[in-house]
Design brief:
Layout lengths: L5 H4 L19 E7 L5 H15 L2 E7 L1 H13 L7 E2 L6 H4 L6 H8 L13 H6 L1 E2 L2 E2 L15 H6 L9 H15 L17 H4 L4 H7 L6
Parallel strand pairs: 1-2, 1-3
Antiparallel strand pairs: 4-5
Protein backbone atom coordinates (compact mmCIF):
# COMPACT_ATOMS: atom_id res chain seq x y z
CA UNK A 1 0.00 0.00 0.00
CA UNK A 2 1.15 3.51 -0.72
CA UNK A 3 2.26 5.85 2.01
CA UNK A 4 3.75 8.61 -0.15
CA UNK A 5 0.82 10.90 0.54
CA UNK A 6 3.00 14.02 0.40
CA UNK A 7 2.46 14.15 -3.37
CA UNK A 8 -1.26 14.58 -2.84
CA UNK A 9 -0.59 17.18 -0.17
CA UNK A 10 1.11 19.29 -2.83
CA UNK A 11 -2.03 19.14 -4.96
CA UNK A 12 -0.30 17.42 -7.89
CA UNK A 13 -3.23 15.49 -9.35
CA UNK A 14 -1.93 14.69 -12.79
CA UNK A 15 -1.51 10.94 -12.77
CA UNK A 16 -1.88 7.89 -10.56
CA UNK A 17 -0.12 6.11 -7.74
CA UNK A 18 0.80 2.42 -8.18
CA UNK A 19 0.39 0.04 -5.27
CA UNK A 20 4.02 -1.06 -5.48
CA UNK A 21 5.57 2.22 -4.30
CA UNK A 22 7.83 1.82 -1.28
CA UNK A 23 6.43 2.76 2.12
CA UNK A 24 8.26 5.87 3.28
CA UNK A 25 7.08 8.84 5.31
CA UNK A 26 9.17 11.25 3.25
CA UNK A 27 11.17 9.84 0.35
CA UNK A 28 14.16 11.60 -1.15
CA UNK A 29 12.58 11.43 -4.59
CA UNK A 30 9.49 10.36 -6.50
CA UNK A 31 9.79 8.54 -9.83
CA UNK A 32 7.27 9.72 -12.44
CA UNK A 33 6.82 7.67 -15.62
CA UNK A 34 4.61 9.01 -18.42
CA UNK A 35 4.45 9.76 -22.12
CA UNK A 36 6.64 12.33 -23.86
CA UNK A 37 3.93 14.73 -25.02
CA UNK A 38 5.03 18.38 -24.93
CA UNK A 39 2.38 19.26 -22.31
CA UNK A 40 4.53 17.52 -19.68
CA UNK A 41 7.16 20.23 -19.71
CA UNK A 42 5.03 22.33 -17.36
CA UNK A 43 5.47 19.50 -14.85
CA UNK A 44 9.19 19.19 -15.47
CA UNK A 45 10.01 22.89 -15.55
CA UNK A 46 7.44 24.40 -13.19
CA UNK A 47 5.51 21.97 -10.98
CA UNK A 48 8.36 19.66 -9.97
CA UNK A 49 10.80 22.45 -8.98
CA UNK A 50 8.08 24.14 -6.91
CA UNK A 51 7.20 20.80 -5.29
CA UNK A 52 10.85 20.12 -4.45
CA UNK A 53 11.30 23.60 -3.01
CA UNK A 54 8.27 23.20 -0.76
CA UNK A 55 8.77 19.58 0.34
CA UNK A 56 12.42 18.78 -0.27
CA UNK A 57 11.49 15.84 -2.51
CA UNK A 58 12.91 15.62 -6.03
CA UNK A 59 10.74 14.33 -8.86
CA UNK A 60 12.62 12.10 -11.32
CA UNK A 61 10.89 12.03 -14.74
CA UNK A 62 11.00 9.29 -17.36
CA UNK A 63 8.95 10.39 -20.40
CA UNK A 64 8.55 7.84 -23.20
CA UNK A 65 6.74 7.34 -26.53
CA UNK A 66 3.38 5.58 -26.13
CA UNK A 67 4.54 2.08 -27.11
CA UNK A 68 7.62 2.29 -24.90
CA UNK A 69 5.55 3.64 -22.00
CA UNK A 70 3.10 0.74 -22.17
CA UNK A 71 5.96 -1.79 -22.36
CA UNK A 72 7.81 -0.19 -19.43
CA UNK A 73 4.75 -0.13 -17.19
CA UNK A 74 3.76 -3.70 -17.99
CA UNK A 75 7.28 -4.99 -17.40
CA UNK A 76 7.86 -3.21 -14.09
CA UNK A 77 4.40 -3.46 -12.58
CA UNK A 78 3.88 -7.12 -13.53
CA UNK A 79 7.25 -7.99 -12.01
CA UNK A 80 6.28 -6.35 -8.71
CA UNK A 81 9.00 -3.72 -8.98
CA UNK A 82 8.76 -0.80 -6.54
CA UNK A 83 10.72 1.57 -8.77
CA UNK A 84 7.78 3.70 -9.95
CA UNK A 85 5.83 6.04 -7.70
CA UNK A 86 3.57 8.01 -10.04
CA UNK A 87 2.41 7.11 -13.53
CA UNK A 88 0.57 8.93 -16.28
CA UNK A 89 -1.75 6.58 -18.15
CA UNK A 90 -4.61 6.62 -20.61
CA UNK A 91 -8.08 5.07 -20.34
CA UNK A 92 -7.27 2.16 -22.64
CA UNK A 93 -4.75 0.89 -20.05
CA UNK A 94 -7.38 0.58 -17.30
CA UNK A 95 -8.13 -3.14 -17.62
CA UNK A 96 -4.60 -4.46 -17.18
CA UNK A 97 -3.50 -1.59 -14.95
CA UNK A 98 -6.25 -1.86 -12.33
CA UNK A 99 -4.66 -4.64 -10.30
CA UNK A 100 -1.54 -2.55 -9.76
CA UNK A 101 -3.18 0.69 -8.68
CA UNK A 102 -4.11 2.12 -5.30
CA UNK A 103 -7.77 2.98 -4.75
CA UNK A 104 -7.74 6.74 -5.29
CA UNK A 105 -11.13 7.21 -3.64
CA UNK A 106 -9.43 6.26 -0.38
CA UNK A 107 -6.48 8.53 -1.09
CA UNK A 108 -8.78 11.46 -1.83
CA UNK A 109 -10.76 10.83 1.33
CA UNK A 110 -7.60 10.74 3.44
CA UNK A 111 -6.41 14.08 2.08
CA UNK A 112 -9.79 15.87 1.91
CA UNK A 113 -9.22 17.90 5.07
CA UNK A 114 -6.00 19.30 3.65
CA UNK A 115 -7.64 20.31 0.35
CA UNK A 116 -11.11 21.72 1.04
CA UNK A 117 -11.12 23.41 -2.39
CA UNK A 118 -10.82 20.07 -4.25
CA UNK A 119 -14.21 18.65 -5.28
CA UNK A 120 -14.40 15.39 -7.23
CA UNK A 121 -17.89 16.44 -8.37
CA UNK A 122 -16.27 19.23 -10.41
CA UNK A 123 -15.28 16.52 -12.90
CA UNK A 124 -17.93 15.55 -15.45
CA UNK A 125 -19.32 12.00 -14.92
CA UNK A 126 -17.90 10.57 -18.20
CA UNK A 127 -14.45 11.85 -17.22
CA UNK A 128 -14.71 10.25 -13.78
CA UNK A 129 -15.75 7.00 -15.48
CA UNK A 130 -12.68 7.12 -17.74
CA UNK A 131 -10.47 7.10 -14.64
CA UNK A 132 -12.25 4.10 -13.11
CA UNK A 133 -12.38 0.38 -13.76
CA UNK A 134 -15.02 -1.94 -12.28
CA UNK A 135 -15.91 0.67 -9.69
CA UNK A 136 -12.33 1.40 -8.60
CA UNK A 137 -10.89 4.88 -9.12
CA UNK A 138 -7.41 4.40 -10.60
CA UNK A 139 -6.23 8.01 -10.91
CA UNK A 140 -7.12 11.67 -11.20
CA UNK A 141 -7.83 12.92 -14.77
CA UNK A 142 -5.73 15.89 -15.80
CA UNK A 143 -6.45 16.09 -19.53
CA UNK A 144 -9.21 14.85 -21.83
CA UNK A 145 -8.91 14.83 -25.61
CA UNK A 146 -12.12 15.23 -27.60
CA UNK A 147 -12.22 13.99 -31.19
CA UNK A 148 -14.07 16.19 -33.69
CA UNK A 149 -15.39 15.04 -37.07
CA UNK A 150 -14.47 17.54 -39.79
CA UNK A 151 -16.08 17.00 -43.17
CA UNK A 152 -16.30 18.57 -46.60
CA UNK A 153 -19.92 19.48 -47.23
CA UNK A 154 -19.62 19.46 -51.02
CA UNK A 155 -18.02 15.99 -51.13
CA UNK A 156 -20.88 14.55 -49.10
CA UNK A 157 -23.43 16.37 -51.26
CA UNK A 158 -21.82 14.94 -54.39
CA UNK A 159 -22.62 11.41 -53.18
CA UNK A 160 -26.12 12.16 -51.92
CA UNK A 161 -25.69 13.29 -48.30
CA UNK A 162 -27.15 16.66 -47.33
CA UNK A 163 -25.71 16.67 -43.77
CA UNK A 164 -22.93 15.18 -41.67
CA UNK A 165 -23.36 11.62 -40.34
CA UNK A 166 -25.26 11.49 -37.05
CA UNK A 167 -24.73 7.81 -36.17
CA UNK A 168 -22.35 4.98 -37.05
CA UNK A 169 -24.61 3.58 -39.79
CA UNK A 170 -24.66 6.94 -41.58
CA UNK A 171 -20.92 7.32 -40.99
CA UNK A 172 -20.24 3.95 -42.62
CA UNK A 173 -22.47 4.74 -45.60
CA UNK A 174 -20.80 8.13 -46.15
CA UNK A 175 -17.35 6.59 -45.79
CA UNK A 176 -18.05 3.93 -48.40
CA UNK A 177 -19.74 6.33 -50.84
CA UNK A 178 -17.03 8.99 -50.71
CA UNK A 179 -14.26 6.38 -50.95
CA UNK A 180 -15.86 4.91 -54.08
CA UNK A 181 -16.33 8.36 -55.58
CA UNK A 182 -12.76 9.37 -54.88
CA UNK A 183 -11.07 6.13 -56.00
CA UNK A 184 -8.27 5.53 -56.59
CA UNK A 185 -6.68 8.69 -55.22
CA UNK A 186 -8.93 9.75 -52.34
CA UNK A 187 -10.36 7.88 -49.37
CA UNK A 188 -13.52 8.81 -47.53
CA UNK A 189 -11.86 8.91 -44.12
CA UNK A 190 -8.56 10.27 -42.85
CA UNK A 191 -7.29 9.39 -39.36
CA UNK A 192 -4.21 10.49 -37.42
CA UNK A 193 -0.90 8.89 -38.32
CA UNK A 194 0.78 6.38 -36.08
CA UNK A 195 1.82 7.10 -32.53
CA UNK A 196 1.18 4.07 -30.38
CA UNK A 197 -1.87 2.12 -31.58
CA UNK A 198 -2.72 4.66 -34.30
CA UNK A 199 -6.26 4.43 -35.68
CA UNK A 200 -7.39 2.00 -32.97
CA UNK A 201 -7.89 5.05 -30.73
CA UNK A 202 -10.39 6.52 -33.17
CA UNK A 203 -12.59 3.46 -33.63
CA UNK A 204 -12.69 2.14 -30.06
CA UNK A 205 -15.96 3.99 -29.29
CA UNK A 206 -17.67 2.06 -32.12
CA UNK A 207 -19.40 -1.14 -30.93
CA UNK A 208 -17.39 -4.24 -31.81
CA UNK A 209 -19.86 -5.61 -34.37
CA UNK A 210 -19.79 -2.28 -36.24
CA UNK A 211 -15.98 -2.08 -36.09
CA UNK A 212 -15.83 -5.37 -37.91
CA UNK A 213 -18.04 -4.10 -40.72
CA UNK A 214 -16.88 -0.50 -40.97
CA UNK A 215 -13.90 -1.17 -43.23
CA UNK A 216 -15.09 -4.20 -45.21
CA UNK A 217 -13.07 -4.26 -48.44
CA UNK A 218 -15.93 -5.87 -50.36
CA UNK A 219 -17.99 -2.71 -49.89
CA UNK A 220 -15.38 -0.47 -51.53
Amino acid sequence: MIRRRSLLQAGAATAALPRVALAQSKPEKLVFVGDNGPWHWCLVEEVAPAFEKQHGIKVDFTLLPIDALSARLKAELNSGSSGIDVIQWTATYAGWLAQHMEDHDKLLASSASRHPDFDWDDFLPPIRDMASYQGKLLGIPYRVTASILNYQKQLLADVGFDKAPENWEEFQAALIATTKAGAPTRYGLGIWGRQGPADRWRVLPIPAWQRRSLFRSEDL
